[in-house]
Specification:
Structural class: alpha+beta
Shape: globular
CATH superfamily of the largest domain: FAD-linked oxidases, C-terminal domain
Bound molecules: flavin-adenine dinucleotide
Largest sheet: 8 strands, antiparallel
Helix content: 25-40%
Number of helices: 15
Radius of gyration: 23 Å
Number of domains: 3
CATH topology of the largest domain: Vanillyl-alcohol Oxidase, Chain A, domain 3
Strand content: 15-25%
Distance between the termini: 22 Å
Length: 532
């Protein structure tokens, strides 16, 4: 407690020395045109994230109205760095990280969210002719979608959940069932405005400052704060046929998933638009919170299908076909032609049909239900892994059928993607094979639940899963990675580490940005290189 107090005093001292101001803990304070807030509620919001695994309170919170505001803050933060003063700056999108990646304990959190109706960054601007939209970095994807739909257009590549910010997902990758076809969200960006760690506003793209452009995409916030992104659009389909089929045989399941993603180059009529899947281990039900598909009053029992394997593990393939109203007559035939080549349990086909926006926004409905039961703001020890195709069956044996036993405490997603749809020049790291899977263990801890739902139990299990992967040399890469030592980060980046490090020196030489990722330690008092 005393140490924490001391740290806060030192941090405030740094801010005061750097910007030459007096500070009252309850009053906002002015830094030129910049107004920093120390309001208790705002500090509290910036101290926690979706993971709820830890808490780290910033010294102040800043809500920028423009890229110039962000640049002003970064300049102030670096003006004294290296001489014993200066402070870290972390952009915070919607705070949906798991391990404090948007936190900073002794600096300023930049709340990038755009408050609709307030003076500040403008709403998304759609260019209909060129099919792109320019958006503020803190824009929520759901608001991007609402805006573009007014013009009959929509982004091509998504995340499963839309209450995430553009800058937050582009700092990771942004993936969902469309990634096999269009690549991750970072493969669907034309241009960025970035405030670098030197406080410069740089417009970058494939042509302009390409090094910065590629470094920032998947760059975990290390090289700059994204203030504008130009995102590719396509004509928006009107409806979606959403289909789930079940497998008891893992090999048949993955073979079909891999077959479906191999169709990426076919015309739209000869492939699905979205390919995901999930593992069904416990509760015996096909529904889960992430997207309840069937009526909760009439849940589908696994046992009623009469076709489980010995371990009681089932696999659900989830696919969709987008269509325009004008294609209503042909969609059934197209789906039938695709389904006939698949090897799922006969009579295990579940289909629903809904507007495109309702499909894309499906997880939000589940969120509202969980919130109403007080089950949303609980700890989430989530683990997201990229697993190479050649080892996915070892992963199934060791983890789904092994370590997890018969209880998962949350959805487990599994779906493959094509590596060539990812640009190797970006900062994101994926396994060394053309096809790799996302395995997402999206578990919630309930302290008053069974032992198998406790945070300790789930965290231990995550550790065992990572250890299993290491011992069996599976070659996984963490998605939304969380490490705390330099050697772990070096191992994560592999042969990209040297370049990553070089880009850091180039674009954020004082290492003040996104310190919550725990990759680099800011150069404030000493010449420390990285966190231990
Ligand atoms: P934050 O958590 O606030 O920030 C994440 C990192 O990015 C931090 O280091 C932060 O400093 C940095 N950052 C934030 N904004 C900027 C900016 N403008 N410029 C530079 N750096 C910035 N991910 C997927 O890919 N697919 C999914 O389907 C998916 N579903 C999810 C569902 C839920 C319910 C949740 C909680 C998360 C999901 N995610 C998914 C993960 C999500 O993409 C990451 O959490 C991501 O960080 C986005 O969250 P955010 O916008 O809240 O960013």
């Amino acid at each position: 407690m005393a140490t924490k107090l001391l740290l806060i005093v030192v941090a405030i001292y740094r801010l005061i020395v750097t910007v030459g101001l007096t500070l009252s803990p309850t009053e906002p304070f002015q830094l030129g045109a910049i107004r920093l807030s120390t309001n208790t509620a705002e500090l509290e919001e910036a101290s926690v994230d979706f993971g709820r695994l830890g808490r780290s309170e910033p010294v102040a919170v800043f809500r920028p109205s423009s890229a110039h505001d962000v640049a002003g803050l970064v300049k102030a933060a670096t003006s004294g760095a290296g001489a014993g003063v200066g402070f870290p700056v972390s952009a915070r999108g919607h705070g949906h990280s798991i391990n404090g990646q948007a936190h900073t304990g002794d600096g300023v959190v930049v709340e990038m969210g755009r408050r609709i109706g307030e003076n500040g960054p403008g709403a998304p601007k759609v260019n209909v002719e060129k099919e792109y939209v320019d958006v503020w970095g803190g824009e929520l994807w759901v608001d991007v979608l609402r805006r573009t739909l007014e013009y009959g257009l929509a982004p091509r590549s998504w995340t499963d959940y839309l209450y995430l910010t553009v800058g937050g997902t582009l700092s990771n990758a942004g993936i969902s069932g469309q990634a096999f076809n269009h690549g991750p969200q970072i493969s669907n960006v034309h241009e960025l405005d970035v405030v670098t760690g030197k406080g410069e506003i740089v417009t970058c793209s494939e042509e302009k400052s390409p090094e910065l452009f590629h470094a920032v995409l998947g760059g975990l916030g290390q090289f700059g704060i994204i203030t504008r992104a130009r995102i590719a659009l396509e004509p928006s389909p009107q409806r979606v046929r959403w289909i789930r089929v079940l497998y008891s045989n893992f090999t048949a399941f993955t073979k079909d998933q891999e077959y479906l993603i191999s169709l990426h180059d076919k015309p739209q009529s000869q492939k699905f638009d979205y390919v995901e899947g999930f593992v069904i281990v416990d509760e015996g039900l096909i529904n889960n919170w992430r997207s309840s598909f069937f009526s909760p009053s009439n849940p589908v029992k696994i046992s009623s299908l009469g076709s489980t394997n010995n371990e009681g593990v089932l696999y659900c393939l989830e696919i969709t076909k987008n269509y325009f109203d004008s294609q209503n007559h042909s969609v059934d035939q197209e789906i039938e032609a695709l389904l006939k080549d698949l090897d799922y349990i006969p009579a295990s086909t579940f289909t629903t049909d809904l507007p495109y926006i309702d499909f894309l926004d499906r997880v939000h409905k589940a969120e509202l239900k969980l919130r109403s039961k007080g089950l949303w703001e609980v700890p989430h020890p989530w683990l997201n892994l990229f697993v190479p195709k050649s080892r996915i069956s070892d992963f199934n044996e060791g983890v789904f059928k092994g370590i997890l036993g018969n209880k998962t405490s949350g959805p487990i997603l599994i779906y493959p993607m094509n590596k060539h749809k990812w640009d190797n020049r970006t900062s994101v790291v994926t396994p060394n094979e053309e096809v790799f899977y996302l395995v997402a263990l999206l578990r919630s801890a309930l302290e008053n639940g069974e032992e198998t739902q406790s945070l300790k139990y789930l965290t231990d299990q995550n550790r065992r899963i990572l250890k299993f992967c290491k011992d069996a040399n599976i070659g996984i890469k963490q998605y939304l990675p969380h490490y705390t030592t330099e050697s772990e980060w070096m191992n994560h980046f592999g042969d990209k580490w040297g370049h990553f490090n070089k880009m850091k020196t180039e674009f954020d030489p004082k290492r003040i940005l996104a310190t919550g990722q725990r990759i680099f330690k800011p150069i404030l008092d000493t010449n420390d290189v990285a966190l231990r």
